[in-house]
Here is the input.
Amino acid sequence: MASSDETNADGNSQACLAGLPAFVAEIDRLCADAKAVIAAARNEVDLEKARIEFLGARSGRLKGITRLLSGLSASERPVGGKHFNDAKETITAVFNEAKDRMAVAAAQEGGSSAGAAIDITLPGKQLRLGHLHPITQTIRRVQEIMSRLGFESVDGPEVEDQWHNFEALAIGPEHPARDPLDNFYLTVAQGVEPLLLRSQTSTVQIRVMENREAPLRIVSLGRVYRPDTADATHYPMFHQVEGLLIEKGSTMAHLKSVLRFFAASFLGGDVRVRFRPSFFPFTEPSVEVDMEWGGRWIEMGGAGMVDPAVLKAVGYDPHEVSGFAFGLGVERIAARRYGVADIRDFYRNDVRFLEQF
Amino acid sequence: MIISTNWLADYVQLQAPTDLLVERLLMSGLNHESTRLVGSDTAIEIEVTSNRPDCLGHIGVAREAAVLFARPLHFPDPQPLQQGGDVASSVAVEILAADLCPFYSARVIRGVRVGPSPAWLIERLQTVGIVSINNIVDITNYVMLECGQPLHVFDLGTIRGGGLIVRRAVAGESFTAINHKTYVLSDQICVIADAQRPLALAGVMGGADSEITANTVDIVIESAQFAPLAVRAAARGLILASASSYRFERGPDPAAVDWASRRVAAMVLASAGGTLDRGVCTAGTLASHPATIELRFGRVAEVLGIDVAAPRQQEILLSLGFVEQWSSPEASQWQAPTWRRDVSREIDLVEEIARIEGYDKVPEDTPIAARPVELSRHEKTIRRASEVLVSAGFCEAMTRSVVNEAMETTQSPWNHAGSTDQARATKSFAETGPLSVSPALVRGADRLRRTLLPSLLEARAGNMSVGAPHGDLFEIARAYLPGSTPHTPIEEPLLLSLVTEGDFSVAKGLAEAVLAGLGLPSEADRCRGANRITFRRLFLDLFAPGQAAEIVLHAVDCEPERIGVVGIIASGIAGRFGLASAVGAMELRLDRLEFAVGVERSLHRPSEFPAIQRDINLVVDATVPWGNIAEAIRSGAGDLLEECRLLQIWQDAERLGKDKKSVVVSLRLRSTVGTLSSDEANRMVDAIVVACGRQVHATLRSA
Here is the structure.
């Protein structure tokens, strides 16, 4: 389709305008006729007659005029073509409007053509929506908030060795946490170093620190395993999200500020956080983190400054860098967020449960 | 640990309401569990972290409270009268296992009257949840709950040979505890024995043979140090944890060993009478090594992010019982109190200052510098794949990583080659059994799974049985396989699995959609791109014969590799899970596909010229697979073929001939450099028909 009048107003088209005015006049007349006839149509039969008269594919008047178009000179033809197309569009639009008007009238009258009206109370064609598991949704939300603070999500193996699950985390051979009854050790041939299903995702933090230089901001996440009897608040398999920041000059003030940012983003509003002294082998000082939720202090997880022994174990110089770590139990915050009273429900995989999230 | 507020008042007068005490203890490290009124007393249950055994006694908690409320602390210094003979003539003590018991002490009181405890003692024990037994036993419990040092009392009359021997148990030796249960001991366990038999499990529980009875006249008071590991081995190994073992596992105050012994003696003399032998019988050396620690005052601000003035730091440490050895304007040196063996490094002192100064002083609006971050390929892959399946109406499941034997008998696609209709399998697999763990995750489930599919079949069956709206589930999780090299003892492929209705084309379509979502369009609509995906027939126990395929990745410069399987689950296996109707399933190795999301996308500008659509109807032998026909069409078409879409396959012996089928294909032709003419399109269709005739013996059926 020609684009605009200007592009055609070049020098050699000026001389040949004699045929064009006649053509344009003819088009305009046709347009006027069509509008009048269509406006006069009283019913769908009249309207169809009008359509055939003007827009008919074989012998409509518009079709007839294309012969005149081919009679124009090559330089006139683009301008003529544009007039022709505009006219066709105008007539088609007028026709469609008239048709719609008649359909509305017919539907409102409930007359013979009322079949055109659809029973809009019939159900729509069902598009079944899938759902991410609420645990995944909770993890994604944590990841998303932490990524705004520059924390990168990482994962690592679930079957771990003693070094990554215990020793590098300052959990010595005599520590009760290493008891066979408190871990899922793999039953493997003797002489092979004992392996176990990781009991915390801090293992991933160790692996990242071993392989990368500070500064570092990561969130490790995934499944962890501890031999708890399954009940409403325990399950032997659960999920952890743990944050780690290693940077020169980082302090507990940074830790508290990051957690407050997290709490305010996760829970919404101006949320306060509170630290209570606690004990973990791999952080010193160690704290429990409470967040104010609905007027109550809720335990969200543990945190602390990375113990110098851990920094040393992964080859960092504790005099050069410091850092903090924190951990959240995903099931616990998901259960609270969604009002799930029994965390075993997360693992029943009942579609009627999953579809609610 | 349960604290009686009346009892606490013996050592420190707080003059503060219980709630305030609870609050301050909570904020300085003793978490609050509950508060209960018991008669005129109040019981506060606190949670004591494993590094603070000093707070497993009332005196320890009183020390904390005295610091928090700046009140003086008083506790007794018992000096019982020693009016009997020399203790050495009553009992001898020998340690034969110094690694399990560094120090042992015994005092002897003769002529006690065993009977009920005085009312005040019964009440105090009642507040902290201990049932009164008799005056002697109650006193040992009381003193343990006072100072944290567990004690034991033997009936001297039952000790044969006149001496106590601290030794390892002889493996297989049996012992009857005061709970009247008999235990078979291992040589990891430390016992207190006489010349003939074990009388007590060191630090865990006394024996029925030597316990205090109404007839007891002479008693031996034990106060000792036992190695935490030995006590734990006994308590865990015999499933016999006690208040005593709980404390010994954490290490009581060495200075309390003798204090507690004197305290018990004094209280027995006061309430049960008798005469205390002169002196104390000891063996071994008391292990007490309080640490000497240097503290740089500036370190506190470096760790906490708040300034605490040096004099305030010193004040806190002094109030907690640390002894200052020297100080300068920059630093000071401290000796830790005997009851704080958890404090041995500068960072530990910083924590002490922090918890007493209060973490509420740490600001929560300290900014951190912005840093760029991007999702890893691993994350992107997981997210992209789950997006596709959620859009397709699937719910994400989470099933256990550890399964029972019944669920592990099916072949895993990841360590069984199965057989294919190609000349060779894509990869040779080491067909090893599953790895197992101990203890079981849940009853009977001790095998690390090698495929997620059985777990999803179980979950689907569960949904079917409760009449859930559907059972279309997917899961993204790891499987566990024995590793192929010593450096990787275990391999953990990240799998995406799904179960759906039993229609192969549905399952395959989902596989193709996920792969396309990851940037790996499958053969049907692939025009360009270096990495190809193909499907090959696969026979594997898990799937119905002839109704499964392996999904093969042909990556640039790599051997073809199985990265997925798709098919209809064998009816026998589906039936085992109680699934009556057919189940389609798919499993992909997402870890092998992570590279795909990393491939840089660059625009292929869509052609602006019009397409020409042509449908052709080919008749071929019924056995010719579609894949061969599509290949023939593509080879004949050249690069003007934009899409080749299968519309319909039908068979009709009368109209087509026996063993023939009609394959209706829609072709979309388009050029990137100009408008295709009808003639060009016709020539192309002719070429396609010729190629199909030559390659799959197809004839054109006129419409």
Remarks:
- Chain A touches chain B through 82 residues (CB under 8 Å).
